[in-house]
Amino acid sequence: MTFRVKFGRQEVPAEYGDDDTYVFLESGALKLSFKKPAQWDEYYAPHAWYQVIAEENHGPGRAKG
Asked: What is the model's pLDDT at position 1?
């Protein structure tokens, strides 16, 4: 696990891997990008996500490294 996202205050966080990335957009939306098994992006409106918990070496917009 390199970062987790809680989509609700009481929910168990979803876990994401080393090659996945997250970005906070100016609008407050959260963009998640995935590399494996295929490349795709997901966008979550500001009210649709609650918290991002990331390891120190996995900042916004970059893969772990």
From this structure: 62
